[in-house]
Design goal:
Blueprint: E1 18-26, H1 32-48, H2 57-77, E2 82-89, E3 92-99, H3 119-126, E4 129-134, E5 139-146
Antiparallel strand pairs: 1-2, 2-3, 3-5, 4-5
């Protein structure tokens, strides 16, 4: 896999030596979130099969959770397709989701009575780093998940 730079446009800093990466176009249909989770799990299983892989069950679970939350928001609020890219480096799993809506989402203040709209709060809580970058069309959200426990 190619080695990326810190200025590769993903919005995150840190080690970018890509071990493996993949991308998917996701439709906005009823099964798109489950499809995205399935793609993420299958990709991480392929990574786990590689020698010296350090993708734990915890990382598998957190990655699928982040994929669910980011793809749910993209499918709910943005018209058109959603693009998802997954990258595994020696230190992280990066979940990158692009959608066509340029509106930058914000986490809401804590409210125990609020039903729903906790997705970004969840992603911020489990990700090592979260970056949102406006694109010429839409936005790209990159969540970086540590391969080792913090």
């Amino acid at each position: 896999m190619p080695v990326g730079s810190h200025d590769d446009g993903d919005g995150c800093t840190g080690s970018d030596g890509h071990m493996m990466q993949t991308g998917y176009a996701i439709g906005g249909d009823a099964g798109c979130i489950a499809d995205a989770r399935h793609h993420a799990a299958a990709f991480l299983e392929r990574v786990r099969a590689e020698p010296h892989s350090s993708v734990s069950a915890r990382v598998m679970d957190l990655t699928q959770l982040v994929v669910s939350e980011l793809v749910t928001n993209a499918c709910k609020y943005a018209p058109g397709p959603v693009l998802m890219e997954l990258r595994v480096t020696s230190e992280t799993v990066d979940v990158i989701v692009w959608d066509s809506d340029p509106t930058v989402p914000e986490a809401h203040a804590a409210d125990a009575g609020r039903v729903g709209q906790h997705g970004l709060e969840i992603v911020k809580a489990v990700a090592q780093d979260l970056r949102i970058h406006r694109e010429p069309v839409g936005k790209r959200i990159t969540a970086r998940i540590a391969l080792t426990d913090p």
